[in-house]
């Protein structure tokens, strides 16, 4: 929801919080600590949404490790001190998809315990006491309630489809065609001729 310049107004963010509340979502993830605006946490408080707040280490074995652990931990201390009084914060998370390097993990655990002391700290978004991420492909919906329901998951790739109005807005009319056998409209299945 935040942008790279960190100049997101309340007017821009509030509709997203209203939408989440209206959808009965009860927790929102501040993925890799991207939202740094006070208004993000104020709106979470006002709309009754809990916040899973990541620190800035992303995907283990995919992205580079933080090169200055002392600076990282000082930033973490400042972040915890700045936002700890927001009742919406439920979880401090050390790393997206992996565990922080030991010096950071130990430091973050200590900081969340001593600077905040009221929230749960987890080192990872998908490994320790959590279900792994995904699936990110179609699976039978019943599997979400049987096979895949073995723990809290911060990323689930449940399929969702846009409205018909959105389909019509972004698929060119010439790519829509009617099936000769069923009469149904399909997308991109008719033969094309080169011109």
3D structure, described in words:
By secondary structure, the protein is an alpha/beta fold. It is built from 5 helices and 6 strands; from the N terminus they run αβαβαβαβαββ. It has a 4-stranded parallel sheet, with helices on one face. It has a two-stranded antiparallel ribbon with strand order 5-6. It is globular and about 70 Å long. It starts with 9 loop residues before the first helix and ends in an 8-residue tail after the last strand.
Question: Helix and strand layout, with pairings?
Answer:
Elements: H1 10-22, E1 27-30, H2 38-47, E2 50-57, H3 69-83, E3 89-95, H4 102-116, E4 120-122, H5 164-170, E5 176-178, E6 185-187
Parallel strand pairs: 1-2, 2-3, 3-4
Antiparallel strand pairs: 5-6
Concise description?
This protein is an alpha/beta fold and 195 residues long. The chain has five helices and six strands; from the N terminus they run αβαβαβαβαββ. The chain is globular and about 70 Å long.
Top keywords for this entry?
four-stranded parallel β-sheet; disordered C terminus; 195 residues; globular
Unreliable stretches (pLDDT < 50, length at least 5) are 190-195
Separation, N- and C-terminal Cα atoms: 43 Å
Total beta-strand segments = 6
Radius of gyration: 21 Å
- Count of DSSP H/I helices: 5
Order of helices and strands: HEHEHEHEHEE
**Class inferred from helices and paired strands:** alpha/beta
Strand order of the largest sheet: 1-2-3-4
Largest sheet: 4 strands, parallel
